[in-house]
Design a protein that fits this description.
The chain is mainly alpha-helical. The chain has ten helices and no strands.
Length: 195
Amino acid sequence: MHLYLPDKLLQQSATEEFNCPGSVELQQRGLQDDPMIARMGRLVAQEIQAPSGGSQMMLDSVSLALTVRMLRTWSRLTECSDLLTSGLAPWQQKRTIEVLQSRYADDLSIADLAAEARLSPFHFIRSFKRSVGVPPHQYLTKIRLERACVLLETTNLAITDVAFETGYQSPAHFARLFRRHYGLTPTAYRRKART
């Protein structure tokens, strides 16, 4: 697996995540297996290979986590780390949740939500998870699947239309997520809800 991180992303991450402005370089330490980096790389590969091209928010989240892991593992930045430990301010949490609830069908990015909260993407992800309990992409998935349940229970829309209506570009991807969360296919859920 070959992972390429733009230098700009590394420098921005060093400044925002580790409070270490200035130039940062990754240290060469020979080849080492890092199961966490490999797992994140596989997640990115799976998401990119999804028929819909993947969720931008999911790709953003994993890319940022991968960058932080690379900096922690392959640089000396941990020596000057001064990470923020607070969550979102009440107005930030309210605003980002409003955006997620009103634009759940859009392909939102972490940068979009971070801008609403007036935070960097790195601080936004960390603060959102601390305040809400889950990362933004998981919260968005929850909103989408809850909306899908309402549509399945109250309309006769085809499953494909429910998928598109709730922001999924691939009905198969929607069905897999739905089954993973509810233990039923969307069709079985609809049938059960109407009996």
